[in-house]
Write a structure and sequence with these properties.
The chain has one domain. The mean pLDDT is 92. It is mainly α. Helix content is 69%, strand content 0%. It contains three helices and no strands.
Amino acid sequence: MVRPTLLEETVAGQEHMAIGRREGLRKGELIGEIRVYQRVFKLAETPRETLWKMSLAKLRAPRFELHEQL
């Protein structure tokens, strides 16, 4: 019996997973920066779960705004 090829066993699948990992790392960095800025400026912290639901593009705006306050 032939077993179907798993996505992670293909070049395309490996590339797709690598992109996802990079985006996940970048998203984590942005969330960390936002939360640190919120603590530094004594602002209410946005819940982590709320931030994780946001896209990278939507995370960049508050991070930029908070960074500009330095």
